[in-house]
Amino acid sequence: MSTIYFAAAVRDNGGGLVIGTELVPEKVAQARANLREAGLEAFAEIREGDALQTLQEPLGAIDMVLLDGWKDLYLPIIRMLGPQVRPGGVVIGDNIFTFKRDLAPYVAYMQDPANGFRSSTLHLADGTEFSVRM
Q1: Per-residue pLDDT tens for 8-31?
Q2: Which residue, among 58, 31, 25, has the nearest Cα to 45 in the 3D structure?
Q3: Checking CA distances to 123, which of 3, 67, 97, 130 falls within 20 to 30 Å?
């Protein structure tokens, strides 16, 4: 669902590309079908496979990263994509309270200014780490 909303926002704001990644082939097929049905396939790409592989190639300047998948991947993914997040770009990590122990290293990394982000944990639903690239 979030990919459709983001793709619609990209379309409505003059263009761009939403890149999603999914491990389960059936979910990939359904996501692509949903984008096609919504007329948004030109604004979103669903990559099939492990995010650490599918997001490896340089993506260019990244405006936003939404982390809402396997919790053990948050930190390795942001270490990989962080250098591509443009100054002022946003990183959102979901379920911070639900998986507090598992996500503690990610939160610590994002809240350490030496890593290039200003970050705060927001008390929204299950916790959201909201970070801005400096």
Answers
A1: 999 999 989 999 999 999 999 999
A2: 31
A3: 3
Query: How buried is residue 111: exposed, middle or buried, by Cβ count under 10 Å (0-12/13-18/19+)?
Result: middle
Q: Counting every residue, how long is the chain?
A: 134
**97 and 107 in contact (C-beta within 8 Å)?**
no
Distance (Å, whole) CA 55 – CA 45? 12
Three-state SS for 95-128 is: CCCCCHHHHHHHHHHHHCHHHCEEEEEECCCCCE
Evaluate the CA torsion angle 69, 72, 73, 78 in order and state its sign. positive
